[in-house]
Amino acid sequence: MNVLSMHALIGAYSSDGRVWMEELKKVLESNINLVYSFFQNEVQGVSLRKPEGTYVVVPNFENWCKVHGRTFDELLRSGVEVGVLWRDGRQFHIPYGIRLALGLPTQKLEEVLHRLKQYVL
């Protein structure tokens, strides 16, 4: 173990670490609810389940692509072109899935969703 790892471990198991973890859990839960609501209410044709043990969601865009006459690769590229760095789900055996990690400040996530709605979806 190096010095940084040792201090990180001490911090993680301290009372301050517990406070930080509780705050983080609130942010992650808020972000998950925000993304779930966005895809349920703002975007037709995208299916999504809330994660139960992670901060990664994988919306399925199969129906959306068919309805809008776009390929999955076109969808991926259009997101990247406006600064949304999402991850292709095919490498995880999810053919029309896009992995979105939600471990970021809510304000940044809101910006991502705004860009998606305005420029991509």
TrEMBL record:
The keyword DNA-binding is annotated on this UniProt entry: no
- UniProt-listed SUPFAM superfamilies: PLP-dependent transferases
Cofactor(s) needed, names only, are:
pyridoxal 5'-phosphate
Key words, A-Z? Lyase, Pyridoxal phosphate
A molecular function (GO) term: lyase activity
Q: What is this protein called?
A: Cystathione beta-lyase
Q: Which organism is it from?
A: Lactonifactor longoviformis DSM 17459
Q: What is the lineage of its organism?
A: Bacteria, Bacillati, Bacillota, Clostridia, Eubacteriales
